[in-house]
Amino acid sequence: MLRQLITGLSLVLLSLVLFRGEAFTEGGGVVAAAGGPAVVTSGGAPMAGPVAPMGSGFGPLAPVGGASSTAPAGMGGGSITSSGAIINSSSAIAPAAQQAPLGPTTAQSPAAPVAETSLDLSVSERAMQEAADGSQKAKPQATALAPLQQFGYNFFRGDARGFAPLTDVPVSNDYILGTGDRISLSIWGSVEANLELEVNQNGDLVVPKVGTIHVAGVSYGQLPGVLKGQIGQYLKDFHLSVTMNRLRLVKVYVVGQVKAPGDYSVPGLSTVLNVLTAAGGPTKNGSLRSIVVKRDGKVVETVDLYDFFLKGDKSKDIRLLPGDTMYVPSIGPVAGIAGNVRRPAIYELKHEKTLKDLLALADGLVPTGYLQRVQISRVDAHEKRTVSDINLDPKASGKVLDGVTASVAIKDLDVVKIFPIDATLRGYVRLDGYVLRPGDYALKPGMRVETLLAQDNLLPEYYGEAAQIIRLVAPDFHPEVLYFNVKQAMAKDPKQNLELQEFDSIKIFSRWEMEEMPQVRISGEVQKPGVYRLFSGMRVRDLLVFAGNLKLTAFTQNAEITRTDYTKTSVKNYSIIINLSKALAGDPQHNIPLEKFDELYIRKIPNWAEETERYITLKGEFVFPGVYPVYRGERLSSVIRRAGGYTERAYLRAAKLTRRSVQEQQQKRMDEALQRAEKDLMQKQATLASVAASKEELESTKATLEALTKTIEQMRKLKAEGRIVLNLSALQQFEDSTYNLVLEGGETLEVPPQPGVVHVLGNVYNQTSFVYEPEMDDVGSYLEKAGGPTSDADASEIYVVRADGSVVSKKQSSIWRFGGFDTTAMLPGDTLVVPQKIERTAWLRDIKDITQILSNVALAAGSVYLWFK
Question: Which residues form a coiled coil (predicted)?
Fold first, then answer.
């Protein structure tokens, strides 16, 4: 009880802050207003510098877990939480509610974070709050309400020009002219003139050829008649019109609790609201309900801005005259109303004395307001803070609501809190899962499962053997799970057709959530092989239709179904052979019913690939180069003849025939050779230090091994050509040649034009290509043109790679003749290769095998150039 009392007293003290514009931090420190001397933090220590000014807009009201009521922006000021804590922001909103645990559905309202700015405070108010600093640590209430804001002050927070006096508005007939007003006078008839005239210091208009006409004190509606009467003394048969060109400026005074007091020169049509807006509006210590206009020392009007803000009534918004004084007194008694009203805010009280009056200012209750407990936080002046709970429910008192609220007095600094009703959704059950219309349903007396599901709510293929009810069991609403048989419940079996209770959640399952879907598989020569659902009565022909039917390559005389017989302990497979042609024709012996897990395999027509999928590509000097199909047993000469034979530019010696199967074999051997070379190289590197005779030899050998390692890495990127050495000749002669191979598909034959050059590579002084000259057509001639072998060349290992891919080396005994290897003929397209001599040390001679391997790999890949880069 004592804790509740302390909490209540703290709430009332905090509510005091609301009406005097101060803001408290969590620890009780005061936050000064913009322009104030200091900001006091949680421990009471001052912080230098002003705080951004607090806005004055309506604060939205969003109780945690309840419905929200949001008032229009632009009319609030300082803000206060429902527990009395000040949070100053024109956009302050309560923190978002936490997510509710499993249980009855609870309506929740989103909320935005609260900005932290301060009110404008007077020195006396600040001192009062600092004196009360130690009592501001009350705990928050269980039901938090949104912070409140002073009503009306945000109207003056926008751009002053938005309500500034205008000079181009129509002038009413009762406007009194005075010095400085400018008019436009148009005369037509016997005389025509357009004049711009200004009322001078004497109150006169000076009209050419007429003289002065006194107009000061004349109303705008009387002015045309006055002018016509005076001008008519000098002119006859004329007409005139008068329009106001520019209004004079009048000086008025704004004093009291305004943000920018002083004297203001404003257009003559300016009203109380115009001038008050220009002065920044009342401070939050200033009254909105008792603004006084004095003229010649007398009060001519008292303006209550609530009439304008709440009703749109501007009847008291009078036009100001020169010398008028507008006085804004200090704010009067205030009371706040928070929670479930249409416009929660802090209101200044004038004639309002009861809760009925305060509710009228807040535009009444919203349906979510809980009337059985309305709380009023009150300050008993100079004594204590109290909290009282009032039952406003008309059922309890037997009176109408207005009668109940009219009997509750409201005092200065009261905070009325209208809490939300229980936000728990009641009287419903929830249907979920494999149903047509899931959602919440009203719980009717005696409602059972069958009643809920009877309205065609079950989807096809629902699972009828079991469904689930999650029930919240009082008093702690812990969940329990019940199961029932849907089919039996729909048959109104009393054991399964359970009676439903509030908050029950019923879930219906799909058949295929609870059972394994029967499937069959089809593969092979069909358009869409895959796994398909097995339907009741499904046959072979049905499955073929699902799979997009047969491909042209399908062998229809024989197909195989693999069937599985299974029990809980064993599985047995066996095959069924069917004729697809007969199955498609509907023969029941072949278009048999399918069973769960059957697999239908459609074979391809035998030799289809060999007969229809073999091609050769002819490139270069053919009459009709291109891609040609290869027939079974067809030879190379046949395809050449189909291509129209050779062109006149064809260089048959350099013809290059590659075959896919040969390329695969060569690639395999290349990979094996590179692995062997890499292994040998690693062994050499491991013994390098022990076999080197000197430091110089060690460094030289190390550099050689590193170069070979890089070469191996490069050669791993090479792909075998798959080239077959071919001695191509004239077509008639070639047909009887052993080189007229039977084609197998995947070949490419390229016949280039004569290159006209000979290539020299390796350890010569000038690696290059030379124009072929018939008079110097041997190895010696081209070796001499390349500068001859270098000092590290191995002259005994020189060889020639012919244009057809064959190799002639110096060591071949068959080529020894008079004059030696230098007399070997060189023809266009041939390549002369001079390798490096590796015999400087006994150890380096051991890597000769490695270099020979790499050389062979380069030849197989057709990359002799790479080897000698």
Answer: 660-718
